[in-house]
């Protein structure tokens, strides 16, 4: 069985640079297309989508699907927001839609409890806690 070699194109590098300039930010494919178009980059929409999926496969960006929102992508930088073991949880505000990164020992303990007591491993890439952020809660 042969494996395809990973290769880099100019378009893929442009995308990666854009994500590196926006660490910890969840961006939809539409956001990326609009930004690159505004910057005058000559990358077609299909090429952007294909390269986003390639960067996900390469483990460079993560793809999140959050209920009621288009899929979003985020640059993975362990020192930016991941915990010591690469654990990162997300909270989504029901009012403003903001997504917050959480790396917290208490939530890690909950994940450990689910595994040890219930035999259930939580998929961090698909787990989102919903509620109201502090900004929206204080504006009542």
* Mean pLDDT value: 81
Q: Quick one: how many beta strands? A: 6
| Alpha-beta classification | alpha+beta
The largest sheet, given as strand count, sense and whether it forms a barrel, is: 3 strands, antiparallel
Description:
The chain is α+β, with helices and mostly antiparallel strands. The chain has 2 domains: about 1-80, Arc Repressor Mutant, subunit A (Orthogonal Bundle), CATH 1.10.10; about 80-140, Dna Ligase, domain 1 (2-Layer Sandwich). Helices cover about 40% and strands about 15% of the residues. It is built from 6 helices and 6 strands; from the N terminus they run αβααββαββαβα. Strands 1-3-2 form a 3-stranded antiparallel β-sheet. α1 packs across α3 (about 45-55). The longest helix has 14 residues, at about 105-120. It is globular, with a radius of gyration of 17 Å.
Q: Which helices and strands, and how do they pair?
A:
Layout: H1 10-20, E1 27-28, H2 29-38, H3 45-57, E2 61-64, E3 72-75, H4 78-81, E4 89-93, E5 99-102, H5 105-118, E6 128-131, H6 134-138
Parallel strand pairs: 4-6
Antiparallel strand pairs: 1-3, 2-3, 4-5
Keywords:
140 residues, Arc Repressor Mutant, subunit A, 2 domains, 3-stranded mixed beta sheet
Summed up, what is this model?
The protein is α+β, with helices and mostly antiparallel strands and 140 residues long. The chain is built from six helices and six strands.
